[in-house]
UniProtKB/TrEMBL annotation:
Source organism of the structure: Corynebacterium xerosis
UniProtKB keywords: Oxidoreductase
Protein name: SDR family NAD(P)-dependent oxidoreductase
Family: Belongs to the short-chain dehydrogenases/reductases (SDR) family.
Tagged with keyword Oxidoreductase: yes
InterPro entries given in the database record: NAD(P)-bd_dom_sf (IPR036291), SDR_fam (IPR002347)
A GO molecular-function annotation: oxidoreductase activity
Amino acid sequence: MPNVDEAWSRDRIPDQTGHTAVITGANSGIGLAAATELARRGADVIMVCRNAGRAAEARRIIDAAGPGAVDVVLADMSEPDEVERAADEIAGVGAVGRTGRLDLLINNAGLIMPGDHAENSLGWELNFATNYVGGFLLARHLLPLYRDVEGARVVEVSSLAHGHVRDLR
């Protein structure tokens, strides 16, 4: 079996021209890296971010990376109503709006709050609502856009950081 360096590198990402990716949490970390590389390879990227200022800063980085178009949809992934509204907005934005298809959904938005207990507006624990429920709901709402697209993918990004939290209450 080849080692990781031989098995994968960003240089092996094929041309993504004509493909559209939706990436939650695309304003930093893994989400920003994925959005940047996909745009560099020609994909149209729709960033789903909570903070407009951080999204604008990340968008400048992604725009500079390559030819793929970049759009931003603002949403708090811990709030089901915002996730549904974001899905409706995504359906009308950029290449998705023009073609009615989505090739890649990367559910990357996440947080870890080891301090005080926090809840969303429905009383759901904030980590759970953001890291799990929000991504599931977005994938469900966007399903008609990727269900019949050959090669479409949904990628769920996770973390082991929750292992450092003693109590979610």
